[in-house]
Design goal:
- This protein is of the alpha/beta class and 578 residues long.
- The chain has a domain of 99 residues: 2-Layer Sandwich (Alpha-Beta Plaits).
- The protein contains 13 helices and 25 strands.
- Strand 20, helix 12 and strand 21 form a beta-alpha-beta unit.
């Protein structure tokens, strides 16, 4: 029987891989379009408790029994599941594979395989593969946490990536506490900018002392359980204990950072082993030889390629590093993820249908996600958004922390008194940590030019003020200040904006440019706040000023985004762990 991956051939016209089946010599090729109904096997897997992990313990979610797959296996009632026609399938015979030359088809693996969904799962003739992969995914009902839509148009995207320490799967029982309920062991808040030009992956230490808010989690009998919050405990207790599910971890992140989390993706020990193997190994670098009996990592100094058990040992080790701390381990994990991204987007992976198939299969088996993104098609939508960001503009950073001052011998950490909130604010305001050099400079120059030119007299400035920021009564405060101190009597308080925004904006028509420049100068608006339209205003139409989270008080200049001094690295860079 043919390997399914070998039946995927690159279409040089569309740039997509398409399903092409072998046919005997002179026979008319059979269409790859299957019957027109979907069988029961394409539903994502989910446990009765809407669970999040593979085996239940103390109310911890688990993966349900295997779902039958297409192509020979039968459903529970003995009938074969039928398939929906694959869109755009031509039914032609098999073509010779040809490697693509364009780098535009390169996609980004950032959680371990969503890239394969884009290149394979939604390509022409891909519905057969969709059926097969869809049954791999586990989902969790997280109640009122998160975003019920896959993405929100014209808005940033925030995804919490959770690595649980649950010891499920072959060969994992010997690692640490085999009875662990599955804590939030590795945590990365992945922030994708509204314009998709950059992303920030912020690691949150598991030993961070924080508050865990009250949350509601679905139980095995289908009932909802309200779990009381905890004060001043380790972050990793936000998952697993007392039946807390990933929705509780999402709410903990939101309370800590003020950033609304849209979705979560959770993986366990097996994911590291299978995904690293699927991409053909992950290159890492050590500046000294390592022999760590606790994580079972034994590697020589210099560059190494790890997969399977060695890959898991590498992301788990703490004792291989100078300080033997979780913060050092996080740096190693960031190096590992950056390297996996580079390997997954390499020509060696992208031009191999076999590798792509294995990667997609491994990724879907490894993932547990919230229900709104709980199938391949929805994950593909998510992945397409992420692939818009160049790898070099993805920044890895660790939440700034200090040793816990309440402990004589610190073993936990607390947020840095100033830098942590500065970083959180940058995420809330959608500020890039990456210098997107040429593009940013060009955009800034163009925006700053909008501030230059003639300025209207205060009596001629008309503006409606909306409050989309955090300051209560900000719109009224601004109108009073404009009228009483700047002479702009034609300013009106329009109360709250339809939604909260990160940065203040001033929208105006081309024939209001002189008014906009005058108002910007009075309020100290940066060029980035200027939003010119394309159609002239008619009659006495007013400009629209919407105050954002960067507005602090009337009369205080609103500055552009600032940079903070914290260690960071790019997904494109490589370094050696110390």
């Amino acid at each position: 029987m043919n390997d399914p991956a070998d039946q995927w051939v690159l279409n040089p016209v569309t740039g997509d891989y398409e399903l092409r089946l072998n046919h005997s010599g002179g026979n008319t090729p059979r269409s790859t379009v299957p019957p027109a109904q979907r069988g029961p096997s394409d539903a994502p897997r989910r446990s009765p408790s809407e669970s999040s992990s593979r085996n239940s313990s103390e109310g911890t979610p688990r993966r349900s029994a295997e779902v039958p797959r297409q192509g020979g296996r039968r459903s529970a009632n003995g009938s074969r599941g039928q398939q929906r026609p694959a869109p755009g399938d031509t039914g032609h015979g098999r073509r010779k594979r040809k490697a693509p030359k364009s780098r535009g088809k390169k996609a980004l693996l950032w959680t371990g395989g969503v890239m394969a969904f884009v290149l394979v799962g939604v390509s022409a003739g891909g519905y057969w593969l969709y059926q097969r992969l869809n049954g791999n995914i586990s989902t969790v009902d997280i109640g009122d946490a998160g975003n019920k839509d896959v993405i929100t148009a014209n808005a940033p995207l925030n995804i919490l990536i959770i690595g649980t320490d649950k010891r499920t799967g072959k060969g994992n029982g010997g690692y640490g506490d085999k009875n662990s309920v599955g804590h939030a062991d590795t945590n990365i808040l992945f922030h994708l900018s509204e314009d998709r030009t950059n992303a920030t992956a912020m690691s949150i230490p598991r030993d961070l002392i924080t508050n865990i808010p009250e949350c509601t989690a679905k139980q095995e009998d289908g009932s909802d359980k309200t779990i009381p919050g905890l004060k001043h405990v380790r972050f990793n207790r936000s998952l697993g204990e007392a039946g807390r599910n990933p929705g509780c971890t999402m709410k903990t992140v939101e309370e800590l950072t003020g950033v609304k989390v849209d979705h979560f993706m959770m993986v366990d020990f097996n994911a590291v082993k299978t995904l690293s193997t699927a991409v053909g190994g992950v290159k890492i670098c050590l500046d000294h030889a390592v022999d760590d009996p606790k994580s079972h990592l034994k590697l020589p100094a210099g560059e190494n390629t790890v997969m399977g058990e060695d890959a898991l040992a590498y992301v788990r080790t703490r004792h291989a590093y100078a300080n033997e701390s979780d913060l050092d381990r996080i740096k190693g994990q960031q190096q590992f993820l950056g390297s996996m991204i580079r390997q997954a987007k390499s020509d060696d992976t992208l031009t191999s249908p076999t590798k792509l198939f294995k990667l997609a299969d491994a990724a879907t088996k490894a993932l547990t996600v919230d229900e709104p993104i709980g199938d391949v098609k929805k994950l593909s939508t998510l992945a397409k958004e992420i692939t818009k960001t160049d790898t070099k503009n993805i920044t890895f950073v660790t939440m700034p922390v200090i040793d816990n001052p309440d402990e004589p011998t610190p073993v936990t950490v607390v947020p840095h008194p100033t830098k942590a909130e500065e970083l959180f604010q940058m995420l809330r305001e959608d500020t890039s940590l990456t210098e997107v050099a040429a593009q940013k400079k060009k955009a800034k120059s163009k925006q700053d030019a909008l501030l230059k030119g003639t300025k209207a007299a205060p009596a001629d400035v008309r503006v409606d003020v909306y409050n989309g920021g955090e300051v209560a009564g900000g719109a009224q405060q601004t109108v009073v200040w404009l009228q009483n101190t700047k002479g702009i009597l034609k300013s009106t308080n329009k109360a709250n904006a339809p939604k909260k925004i990160a940065r203040t904006t001033l929208e105006y028509a081309p024939n209001q440019a002189d008014q906009a420049r005058a108002l910007a100068e009075m309020m100290g608006l940066p060029g980035s706040a200027m939003k010119p339209g394309t159609t002239d205003a008619e009659g006495l139409e007013a400009m629209v000023l919407t105050l954002g989270a960067d507005f602090k008080e009337a009369g205080k200049s609103i500055t552009g985004p600032k940079k903070i001094d914290i260690p960071k690295s790019s997904a494109e860079s490589a370094g050696c762990s110390k």
